[in-house]
Amino acid sequence: MEFRITHRASGCRARTGEIQTPHGNFETPVFMPVGTQGSVKAVSPEDLVDAGVKVILANTYHLYLRPGYTLIGRQGGLHRFMNWSRPILTDSGGFQVYSLTSLRTLTEQGVTFQSHIDGSRHFIGPEEAIDIQEALGADIIMAFDECAPYPSEYAYVQRSVRLTTSWARRCLDRKKRGDQALFGIVQGGMYPDLRETSARELVAMGFDGYALGGLSVGEDRATRERVIRETVDFLPQEKPLYLMGVGTPEDILEAVMLGVDMFDCVMPTRNARNGTLFTTAGRMSIKNARYAEDNRPIDESCHCYTCMNFSRAYLRHLFMAREILSYRLNTIHNLAYYSRLMGDIRTAIGEERVAEYRATFYEVQKNGLGQKEVL
Amino acid sequence: MEFRITHRASGCRARTGEIQTPHGNFETPVFMPVGTQGSVKAVSPEDLVDAGVKVILANTYHLYLRPGYTLIGRQGGLHRFMNWSRPILTDSGGFQVYSLTSLRTLTEQGVTFQSHIDGSRHFIGPEEAIDIQEALGADIIMAFDECAPYPSEYAYVQRSVRLTTSWARRCLDRKKRGDQALFGIVQGGMYPDLRETSARELVAMGFDGYALGGLSVGEDRATRERVIRETVDFLPQEKPLYLMGVGTPEDILEAVMLGVDMFDCVMPTRNARNGTLFTTAGRMSIKNARYAEDNRPIDESCHCYTCMNFSRAYLRHLFMAREILSYRLNTIHNLAYYSRLMGDIRTAIGEERVAEYRATFYEVQKNGLGQKEVL
User: Fold this and answer.
1) CA–CA separation, B284 vs B313, rounded Å?
2) What is the distance of C-alpha A143 from the center of its chain?
3) A227, A212 Cβ separation under 8 angstroms
4) What is the ipTM of this complex?
5) Could you tell me the sign of the dihedral formed by the alpha carbons of A232, A235, A241, A247, in that order?
6) Looking at the whole model, is its pTM more than 0.90?
7) What residue ranges define each of the domains in chain A, with the CATH number in brackets?
8) Best residue in B34, B36, B39, B298 to probe A by mutation, most A CBs within 10 Å?
9) Per-residue pLDDT reduced to its tens digit, A195-253
């Protein structure tokens, strides 16, 4: 993997760049839709390409449990298994182990847990996380970390950072494949000195990129932005920076200005399935009765398959009738929205007008002009 | 609507033909996938076109209840509402009223019933069925009939035929639009003389086509084929003949040889969502563990999007993980299978080898060669 910065904004830390992987390149800042179980929910690989998606995230924990990483390995890896030829990033499985399983036992060695599917017992430590991710064959893989809950006592987070550093070292030692980039994950909760410690220790080991973990776990927005700002200072500017599990269009825009290059979140896909659609004028709940006879597209400025072919009235009907097509069409739109958002942000950075872009972004949503005209 | 017979088989009643409608032509024998609520479940209009679908059926009862036929009318009709530019046939709503609703009251005037969605009370008679279907704007619409349950006493079916004839007359009288073809529906249960009566009475009124109703309601296959055979004699050979709610590939093949031109059934779509896939060698249950690591397509002779891009192993995983994409990919394959089946049957009729086609069709499925090699 190669990361090349193509432009640095002058008024903030925002930058544009390009990441090269064995499965092609993508520009940053980038948003990665989540394909939890080897499928970005409700859409096909072709739909993703059409919606402008360049890279996706897959969940190691889910694929480890079902269908199993050895099976995917024997099928030629995840790209081939799911017929996705563009880049993939896999998380380490850590976050899902902490958030989805029961009867967890955490030791220096790793985590023993019960499957959320069938209650079976499993163990994943840093070595296993790397082995699984090597079998899956993503272009970018993540170190196995411990994500402290929020809020957590200082002593707990301190221990968590120590463990995360130790595990990161073991991940580097275990790694065998030369065609996968490995990112370290900075922990440290909301404590600036622990974030600094975590960042410094990981940077000393030399990862291909760095992620901010342990955020978007319940803290408020100001706290999250403070932690990002304080942590970025201790990370090498020439490496890609990935903010895990974030977020809303607003969250992403703010984080880009703080220097973040990569994002992932279930928001566009999950919201789509719940009938919440993103537009340039803000969010739209498609089940609202006001759309029952509205023959306009979701967003008149959007060129996605959904907006080019279907009315709000029809999309509302599909959603109310719980038709499967509803989930797909809504997801296509939301993913296209996120793709366009990231493209617009990249263009604004390149043209030295990201501050103006940000002002306009909020203005359009706030002044209700868009609400009246578009919604 | 125009119906033109292009070839009559010499050894049986099978024939090929072409139906011209305001939304384009399609060849017969034809299979119409069911788009119950204004969507063929799990697929888009584009998917239908890619799977070779030329005409679909929509359910008047469902669209009447949700989103409502006046709404669809104001949205420019069903074609425009669901973005399907090819022909549509709507049923009369009768069958669903009898099979899905509660607290039904049947009178000479029509049927009062409670919605299966919210329990609200509604009335549909022949005039209402025509008004609704004119608002929906399908290319082919159906007369409102009474479908007797199976088994039913002779006297009940006799009364049902009388009512169906009376309602058919009122449908013809009510019809205002000149761009929709209206089909009559022959009832009469399994009683040959009542089928004859029903057929003669409808033919005397002069419909654009004739349907066989009240079949596929629980009778055995031999009985169904006997009824088809006995009824066809009393219907004009120059009009299209439609067997409602049928069926399996085998059922369709047999009925084609008895002279049937049109079919509809939820089988390919519903089976797809249950993980049952049609192949040239028979049915496949994709959840079967034997497919867990099978990297072949569902059917190596199939050129649908699913077979061209995904393995049995991946499709099994999607189905086991209940991923929404599973329903779409399975549905695309089953619809493509039905399209190919009908195309193969038409070609066989045209080439005067439908009997050989039939023999081979059963042989491939029966001798297990296909089972071993393809499945």
Assistant:
1) 13
2) 15
3) yes
4) 0.96
5) negative
6) yes
7) 2-265 (3.20.20.105), 272-373 (no CATH)
8) B39
9) 999 999 999 999 999 999 999 999 999 999 999 999 999 999 999 999 999 999 999 99
